[in-house]
Amino acid sequence: MSSLKYKRVLLKLSGEALAGEQGYGINIDVLAQVASEICEAHSLGVDIGIVVGGGNIFRGVAASTKGMDRASSDYMGMLATSINALALQDALEKRGAQTRVQSAIEMAQIAEPYIRRKAVRHLEKQRVVIFASGTGNPYFTTDTAAALRGMEINAEVLLKATNVDGTYDKDPKTHPDAKKYTTLTHRDALNKGLKVMDATALSLCMDNRLPIITFKLMEKGNIIRILKGESIGTLIN
User: pTM for the whole thing?
Assistant: First the structure.
């Protein structure tokens, strides 16, 4: 525990990450690997809060561009995050972790309502807390929910899991000459229009001095290396 750089973190998982190569739904093998990585990190004594997206099931923004009411489509997206949260909870508990799912939309049969003090108490009792349903409000992304929850639980860093090994000036999958940033400021990320998080989430982190680390999720051991202070991915501070 004494060798760790971070003692409390907020991990942001995209819904797309849970879909794996299949592109839709939940890939059980990917879910198992993600859960194993989280449990290994949690076993070191780190407090871990998780915000999970729902893009592998339903994307509210995409639906709204095709004529669906934006508020309605966003609420549907929030329900999709709840499905992912329950799947992640099951995978974590199968590996011995104690967990709680807290939802910003009340659904008493499957999750606790989000209560900040209760979430912090769960973390103090070494439970992994999974935050579902975003902020509970339409027009706000799960990136913004991650920034908000990170600050509410007094996280020392926001870990943004992606499918590439950091933040680039352009998409490295389509541009072989893409330049990777090792470090950035929040303002630089905003001014350069880098797709780290949406502008609202980035501004929230900047105003409240919450550092962000973007890293490749499916590279084994990355979360633990970050917790121990190794230079992994891109630090936005």
Answer: 0.94
